[in-house]
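Students often ask what a holo structure prediction actually looks like on paper. The answer is less mysterious than it sounds. You provide the chain, you provide the ligand, and the output is a string of discrete structure tokens encoding the 3D arrangement of the protein together with adenosine monophosphate.
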Amino acid sequence: MAEDCIFCKIIKGEIPSPRVYEDDKMIVINDVAPAAPVHMLLLPKNHTANVTTADPELVAYMLSKVQMLAEKAGIADKGFRVVINTGMDGGQTVNHLHIHVLGGKALGWPPC
Ligand code: AMP
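The corresponding structure tokens follow.
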């Protein structure tokens, strides 16, 4: 756990956030400012800054759960987007690895 990390505080339960899914390695919450009708965040329980610092096996594990989560959220059939913002130019605002899963509408491209 990292001091002053908002996602660590959510994982510890210090900041309330309903969990869409939880296992021994990660929790999944809904984004507080959703960019689509479905906008989930997959957060590893152990703090790591981003995808470049994370154990690749952990990232693979998290990605392996995306289809199940999309099915649970009802967005698997029509499709969805998986995003890992990384670093300043990547638009990462919380320095605790998180995987966005967005869907529920036709998403534009490019994203900005
Ligand atoms: P990123 O810009 O990739 O770092 O994404 C961080 C995301 O975390 C943003 O989409 C925020 O809306 C979201 N976020 C920040 N604080 C919270 C919170 N307390 N609960 C849920 N989502 C949050």
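The chain is about 20% helix and 20% strand.
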